[in-house]
Fold this protein.
Amino acid sequence: MIKFSMVDVESVTSSVPRSNFDEAALDTLADMILESGGILKPLVLKNTGFEQYSVFDGHFEYYAAVRAREKNPREGETVNAFIILPENESAVVKQAATLTSFMNKDSVAAAKTEMPQLIEAMPSNGLIQQVEKLLYRQQASLDEQLKTINEKLDKLIPPPPPPKPNLLTATKQEIIEAMKNEKQADSAWNAIEHWKQEGRVLSWDNLKKSIKSKEHKIKNFAEGTYKKLQEVADIPHQ
């Protein structure tokens, strides 16, 4: 047997965290509960002790009832619910699974067919405006959540590295910024300028000669500076 009753909101608990639901949506439904004096879809509760219950179905509605009680402790003290007795729990679980299966198949078509008539039948007491407000808040909440996700993704995915300077056309300042070491950049710039002189060719092979070659040696241009320059810069024709 399933018993219909009005139960104290404080006597009910839920295994689903409140944070799973949009607070703005809960707030709007709470206003509707207080205005109409109950929930259109009663909670389905399991009896867990003397006048103690847990939510079997209707976790969103439960938290809306909690919010209604927060807003108006007197008017929102109780909530309408179906209470499953222990001896009926197995049968109710089977029934719920069957109903869920049918609803998953038919709910979209039913909503398309029935929603215009339901909206037209609603009294002009502000309920339609409240539904529109609820939908607007839900959309705003989704937009905010999407923005937060994108911000987190931006932090997780590093920005692409800046393009490497072309040593054939780069300025000394660009070399300094790329190498992030002014002393290394000075010796690298001297080596670059040496090989850009008329009759010489700026290439990685020739720059390497500036490390040890007596003829082309550049002061302070060593193996570490050469490798660092290769990491941060480019010579396109090679």
Q: What stands out?
A: The radius of gyration is 36 Å. Strands lie at 2-8, 12-13, 43-49, 52-57, 78-84. The CA atoms of residues 5 and 81 lie 6 Å apart.
